Amino acid sequence: MATVKQALTGNSPITERTPENTGAGAAKGLPFERYFTDGKISPFDAVEWEKRTALIGNEKGVTIFRQEDVEVPKGWSQTATNIVTSKYFHGKPGSREREGSVRQLISRVVNTIVRWGQEGG
Q: Which residues contact 27 (CB under 8 A, 6 or more apart)?
């Protein structure tokens, strides 16, 4: 199965045509050409990252969600940080299993899509 690194760098049967997956008996599916990456560096390395605190309060100023040291793209707004961290990170808040980076979120989603593609042929 393709790993996150393979899927994100393009070294997978889904994104790279090789003699093994071309011609007669080729793997089923659609080939996808590179568009945003060159395959030489990880897409994660092309983004500037920073750590922030995601914080959501109610109208009375009471904190209803807080997660510190969340790694997000530097260009993101604080609102984007708060929403993605509170709604889309997996794991119980405050637990060791809790995602702490958008990189982890993206990797989880990419792996799911790769798995679905492989399972669906």
A: 13, 21, 121
CA distances from 113 to 19, 75, 96, 98 (A): 24, 26, 25, 21
**What pLDDT digit, counting tens, does each position of 87-121 carry?**
999 999 999 999 999 999 999 999 999 999 889 88
Q: pTM, whole model, 2 decimals?
A: 0.73
Q: Where are the beta strands (DSSP E) in 1-119?
A: 49-57, 63-73
- Whether residue 97 contacts residue 91, with contact meaning beta carbons closer than 8 Å, is answered with yes
Residues in the chain: 121
Alpha-helical (H) ranges within 2-101 are 4-9, 78-88
CA dihedral over 9, 83, 89, 76, signed as positive or negative? positive
d(CA 109, CA 116): 11
* Per-position DSSP letters for 75-96, written without gaps between them: TS-HHHHHHHHHHH--S-TTST
